[in-house]
Design a protein that fits this description.
By secondary structure, the chain is of the alpha/beta class. The protein has helices at 21-36, 64-72, 77-103, 117-124, 154-160, 167-171, 173-182, 233-240, 258-271, 304-307, 320-329, 342-351, 366-378, 380-390, 395-412; strands spanning 12-16, 40-45, 56-59, 107-110, 128-132, 196-199, 216-218, 245-249, 275-279, 296-299, 313-316, 333-335. It contains 15 helices and twelve strands.
Length: 413
Amino acid sequence: MPNASSAPRHGRVLLATAGSRGDVEPFFGLAAVLQEAGHEVRVAAPDDPIPGEGIDVASLGVSFRRLTSMTQESRNGLRAFREQIRPAMSIMLARVVDTAMSWQPDIIVFHPKLLTVPVVAERLGIPALDVGFTPVLSPTREFPAPGVASRSLGAVGNRLSYRAVTLGERLFAADIRAARRRLGLPSSRRVASPAGSLIAVSPTLLPRPADWPSTTHLTGDWPAPPAPSALSPAVREFLSDPAPFVYAGFGSMHGGDAVSRAEAIVESVRAAGLRLLLATGWGGLEPPHRCLRPDVLIAESVPHEHVLGAATVAIHHGGAGTVHATARAGTPSIIVPFLADQPFWARRLQHAGLTGPALHRNHLTPDRVKGAIADAVDRTPQAQAAAEAMLREDGPAAATALIAQTLTSVHTS
């Protein structure tokens, strides 16, 4: 029997995140499990709808949805960064420091966008664990940094590509220095490395690279907590019809010709003899009125956990959260990547046999999408086998155990 000093220790856990739904919802899924395990939890998050109940939330003072809408209207990327993104990030980088200093946590688990977390963790003398929903935190020879390169650069090139991920420290170096000055820390020191990294990715979709260090932990993904009263009457009625349907939604993605994109999806699904549940999200799909008939239901968003498992095929952007939700549901995917890590996940799922080649977001045609639907339907057995494997994983429980282990190590050292 383990002695008292080696037993897992409970503590005050600050979870800090920034970004769109895919960056925020998993932290709330982890928060619920941490609370059930006896930890005191607070989530520092943007001012957008909260995907959970009964969880203490601290505002970071910025709405990512509003920020996305503002930057969408700007045609000048550098100007949008200077006038909108950078000021918003500065607010959040300062707010997370304020939250940690006022709440005095025992450990901080954080999204790497929040570059000032290691600074406040150093000031408080507590461990910090960073979180990756895509494997960009630990270099490997096996594949290049997602979002940096679209194909292998060779063993050496793949590892070197991860240096680009540290660019954020340079872009927001002034905010990091300001945090150090506020907290009375030497300004010349580099940002401290975290005590470890939690990679919230399913090993079914991404086997652990052999050259990752022991401080990088592949936990499995962290599903969002179920949303109460999540289904609208219209969606509930749509799902009650046994006729098969396709789900299409691009989440927070936007840009390009969202009208033609939606029209191609509607026409292809209809030509395949299927119904369509289309989630418009933050602007990636804008179906014209001429396409709408009783076989199409339009919603701004729908809870994946209630919808994907009933869909025949899911057409989506390939964000990490949607990739995992779709795979866990046993539903084959058609991926239409927009940016960042999405091409990586498209290749990863294609390699696993769960999807065919990705479709270009600006070159969707009814024939291409209809062909992709037929291909996806044929992949249903592989998708269901992956779902069965993922059912044996429990990412939040694994992450909770690692957090408790870190707390115990600090307490006994």
